[in-house]
Amino acid sequence: MSTQQSARTVVGGIRGALLIGGVLAVVVGILILLWPGKTAMVVAGIIAAWAVIAGVVNIALGVLSRSAGAWSRVGHIVLGLIFLIAGIVAFSNLGLAAGTLATFVGALVGILWIVEGVVSLTTLGGTRSRGWTIAFAVLSIVAGVLILFAPVWGALVLWVWLGISLILLGAIQIVRATRLRTR
């Protein structure tokens, strides 16, 4: 195979990957915007399935490992049981699991924004853009406090933003894929 044919093959593979990724992003973004609750339940179901699998794997590690010490084996079994129970509980009510996940994510983002704002204030001495840094810090702290008072609402806004972002980024990715050429 010539160098030019190899380059075309590589570009074709990249083009295909970009196209598939872009289409998937657009589809998931549309699903998030059209059915935010159901899509959140699917995400909760995926996490629940992961927890069940992780539980089974950890239990198996604890039971079947011959080289690990007793505490390590007990730890794997206990961790596996926690994962397994969490996955089963999540599967028993995916709507509640999705709501709980949204509350957790909303609160986590709120806390992270507050910390980010405070940390940015600590950099005031070493920056040339004090005004922008202060504006960023204040906005970050205020947004963090607001989202902590309403974490589910904040998570919903972030979820919708994710859907819009996926559609826009996916569309751009599709255009990139169609315009990719070999030199």
Précis, in short:
Helix content is 88%, strand content 0%. The protein is mostly helical and 183 residues long. The radius of gyration is 23 Å and the shape is extended.
Protein model, in words:
- There is one protein chain.
- The protein has 6 helices and no strands.
- The protein has helices at 3-34, 36-64, 70-92, 94-121, 130-149, 151-179.
- The longest helix is centred in the N-terminal third of the chain and has 32 residues, at 3-34.
Mean pLDDT: 88
- What is the H/E order? HHHHHH
Shape: extended
* Helicity level: over 70%
By DSSP, the count of extended strands is 0
- Given as residue ranges, the uncertain stretches (5+ residues, pLDDT < 50) are none
What distinguishing features does this structure have?
183 residues; mainly alpha; 6 helices
